[in-house]
Amino acid sequence: MKFPTSLLSLTRFLLLLLLPFFSSAWLDVSVATNTQPQYHDLLHCLCSQEDAICNLIYTAQNSTAYASVLQFSIRNPRFSNNNASSSSSRTKPIAIVTPTTIPQVQSTVLCSRKHGLHLRVRSGGHDFEGASYASLSSPFLLLDLVNLRNVTVDVPSKSAWAQSGAVLAEVYHSIASASRTLAFPAGLCPTVGLGGHISGGGYGTTLRKFGMAADNIRDALLVDADGRVLDRAAMGEGVFWAIRGGGGNTYGIVVSWKLKLVRVPLRLSAFTVSRTASSDAEMTKLVDRYQRVTDKLPDDLMILVMIGAVDQGNSTKQVLQAAFQVMYLGGKERLLRVMNESFPELGLKEEDCKEMSWIESVLHFANYPSNSTYDVLLKSRTDSPISFAKLKAKSDYVGTPLPESALQGIWSRVHQVEAGAALLHLIPHGGMMSRISDSSTPYPYRAGTVYKIQYYVAWSGEQKEVEERHLGWIRKLHEFLTPFVSKNPRGAYANSRDLDLGMNDPTGETSYEQARVWGEQYFKHNFERLARVKAAIDPSNFFRNEQSVPPLSM
User: Fold this and answer.
1) How far lies 273's CA from each of 285, 300, 304, in Å?
2) How far is it, in rounded angstroms, from Cα 423 to Cα 389?
3) Does residue 253 contact residue 223 with C-beta atoms inside 8 Å?
4) Distances from the Cα of 134 to the Cα of 40, 94, 171, 439, angstroms
5) What is the radius of gyration, based on Cα positions, of the chain?
6) In 3D, which of 282, 329, 289, 281 has the Cα closest to residue 305?
7) Partners of 455 in the beta sheet?
8) Is there a smaller number of Cβ atoms within 10 Å at the N or the C end of the chain?
9) In the chain, what's the furthest Cα-to-Cα distance?
10) What is the pLDDT along the chain (554 residues), one digit of tens a residue?
11) How far apart are the first and last CA of the chain?
12) Cα dihedral sign for 341, 346, 349, 353?
């Protein structure tokens, strides 16, 4: 596989791994047998509730559209085809339901529970481990929210109701169509589903000014295991707290969110500058300075960094390159003064800085062509290039700047052949993130966190040894950094799901003590509260996946 020759191209390449894959010819699904009486009883139950829902059910046996519907929102092909790699052990759904109304969601929940069929829920399909559409237990039904994506903006109240099946591109487009000075503080990737994004926290380019997506939710509509539709008042503050960052497919199905919109300038500064290091030591110096100032910059300023190895002309030798994604809620003159005072090592010049609207910054950071209008966001579900590379991700939190020895150790591993297309993404905290309590939502990494590290490795090929080689590389890198990152517990980001941390028993019988192994890495001290909320809202553990929170009774 030939990888990109610049970090900006590599970034685009890896971003495309998170976009839709539409060719159905290569999808060879491994589906649990449909001979179980519960399967036929389920279909009868659903169709008896409403005739229209019968046309929204897809199975491998009686629908030629099953493969394309399943694949439509799969963002990581590790879990989309059945091959000799380790991902082939995952089971695909025996049926897919794509409801168009909330009552149809209620019917699906009630019929699945009545007939003892496990249920998975998919919003945008960006789960790094495929847990929203593939399972280690079988059989199961997939409830795909792709048809529930309405967004209604109310400018006077600075709020919007958005259904969970909407992708961020659709949310952003609706907001920009209503106002050019309102925004929602969420992620960079346009095809991320809103439901899953908020369920794990959700961060973007205004994180340091406004906090996470989950910090900006006013209300929600939740379908619980009894099929009830509950708003914030009905579900209670405990459940409302849990659904905003405590993991998806756990407490019920959030079908809609009331978003708190934030005020942004009509014009702001947003751009990306790349720096290629002549030596690893030069990159160490640049990143070392970055990590010592990034959480202390003004709240209006956020600088994300992506680091990888790129080809050096016609040479076989690779060099390190860093792409700095800069977002400043103000003009470039003030930005240049701040940068020259705090981070002169970056060498930022006036010609590097670009002023634009908030919605134009969305297009920029999503790597759309510079001449694109924001209407291109409405085509994000279908007009995305195909990529066949597979992906594994891990995450860490840094509270003390990494020593030079750690940075040098990272670079040496990034140069290894096994790294393939590897990328490190540094996401700064500080600002508003340091002023929000670590128990305000389940996301606990607030004050004291300098930045989050996101690791990616990508590869192509169907051979098991190819996958294992790349998985081994990222696991060794993660292990190497153990002494330098957060401890007791070592932190991880829930939306960067990593089954290496531990998994629930496929039968759903995992105890709280067993789940603490991975649960406290995502949620720290908030994990116990999440488990108690789970016991109150879903004591039978109907909603579950490989890393859902198990119930903990009083």
Assistant:
1) 17, 18, 11
2) 14
3) yes
4) 21, 10, 26, 31
5) 23
6) 289
7) 394, 424
8) C
9) 70
10) 444 556 555 555 454 443 332 223 223 334 555 446 777 888 899 999 888 899 999 988 777 899 889 988 888 888 875 444 454 467 889 999 999 999 999 999 999 999 989 899 999 888 999 899 988 877 899 999 999 999 999 999 999 999 999 999 999 999 999 999 999 999 999 999 999 999 999 999 999 999 999 999 999 999 999 999 999 999 999 999 999 999 999 999 999 999 999 999 999 999 999 999 999 999 999 999 999 999 999 999 999 999 999 988 777 788 999 999 999 999 999 999 999 999 999 999 999 999 999 999 999 999 999 999 999 999 988 765 335 478 999 999 999 999 999 999 999 999 998 888 899 999 999 999 999 999 999 999 999 999 999 999 999 887 889 999 999 999 999 999 999 999 999 999 999 999 999 999 888 788 999 999 999 999 999 999 999 999 999 999 999 999 999 999 86
11) 54
12) negative
Q: How far apart are CA 153 and CA 259, in angstroms?
A: 9
DSSP annotation string for 233-297: HHH-HHHHHHHTTS-SSSS-EEEEEEEE-EE--SSEEEEEEEEE-SSHHHHHHHHHHHHHHTTTS
Let me know: does 400 contact 295? Beta carbons within 8 Å.
no
Beta bridge partners of 322: 275, 307
Q: State how far the Cα of 212 lies from the Cα of 219, in Å rounded to an integer.
A: 15
Given the DSSP bridges, would you call strands 217-223 and 159-163 parallel, antiparallel or unpaired? Answer: unpaired
Q: Which amino acid is at 111?
A: C
Using the structure block, give the residue that is written with the tokens 């909320």: 533
CB distance 200 to 454 below 8 Å: no
* Amino acid at position 313, single letter: G
If phi > 0 it is left, if psi is from -120 to 50 it is alpha, else beta; for residue 267 that is: beta
Helices (H), 17-50: 37-49
- Positive or negative CA dihedral for 367, 368, 371, 374? negative
CA distance 218 to 220: 7
Q: Which two tokens stand for residue 388?
A: 């066949």
Other CB atoms within a 10 A radius of the CB of residue 153 amount to 21
**Length of the chain (residues):** 554
Taking phi first (over 0 means left), then psi (-120 to 50 degrees means alpha), and beta for anything else, what does residue 347 get? left
